[in-house]
Amino acid sequence: MTEKAFHRPIRSFVKREGRLTSAQQKALDTLWPKFGIESDDKVINLTQLFHRSAAKVIEIGFGNGSALATMAQQQPESDFIGIEVHRPGVGQLLNHIEAMQLSNIRVVCGDAVPFLQQRIEDNSLDKVQLFFPDPW
C-alpha cells in the first residue's frame, strides 16, 4: 500500500445559505452585471476595474453589506471590493450600492482564499479588512 500526500485546502467559511428575498434576488439579477466580479482565474487589473487609480480596500465577509456600503460612501476617494459567500448578503449589499448611488465598490460572491491567491496581483491592495468573523 502506498502513501499518498493529502492536501486539504484552507476552509475559510461555512456556507449556510438562507432564502433570498425578492428584493435581493432582483438586485442579483439586475445589479450583479455592473458591480459583480465573476468567478474565473484571470488576474484582475484593479485600476481598469474601477476606471481610476485610487486606494484599494478588500473586505472579507461583509455580512449584509451595510457597514461596507457606509465605508464606501464615507471614503469616495477609495475603491472597495467586498467578498462574501452568503448570497442574501451579496444581494443586500447590491441594494445598498444602488440606494446610496455608489460607484466605488465591487462585489465577489465566493471564497476569499482562492480569489486573493488567483485574482489579485501582489502589492496591489492598500488594505484588507476582516471584521467579526463567524466562530464556526
Structure commentary:
- With 136 residues, the chain is α/β, with parallel strands linked by helices.
- It has a domain at 26-36 and 52-129: Rossmann fold (3-Layer(aba) Sandwich).
- It has helices at residues 22-30, 32-35, 46-50, 66-74, 87-100, 112-119; strands at residues 55-60, 78-84, 105-109, 127-129.
- A 4-stranded parallel β-sheet has the order 3-2-1-4.
- Helix 4 links the parallel strand 1 and strand 2 (78-84).
- Helix 4 (66-74) runs parallel beside helix 5 (87-100).
- The radius of gyration is 16 Å and the shape is globular.
Salient structural properties:
single chain; 136 residues; alpha/beta; Rossmann fold; four-stranded parallel beta sheet; 4 strands; 36% helix; globular
Give a concise summary.
This protein has 6 helices and 4 strands; from the N terminus they run H-H-H-E-H-E-H-E-H-E.
Q: Please count the beta strands (DSSP E, at least 2 residues each).
A: 4
The secondary-structure class comes to alpha/beta
Q: Which architecture of the domain at 26-36 and 52-129 per CATH? A: 3-Layer(aba) Sandwich
Taken in chain order, the helices and strands follow as: HHHEHEHEHE
Q: What level of helicity do the residues show?
A: 25-40%
Strand count, sense and closure of the main sheet?
A: 4 strands, parallel
Task: Summarize the SSE layout with pairings.
Blueprint: H1 22-30, H2 32-35, H3 46-50, E1 55-60, H4 66-74, E2 78-84, H5 87-100, E3 105-109, H6 112-119, E4 127-129
Helix pairs in contact: 1-5, 4-5
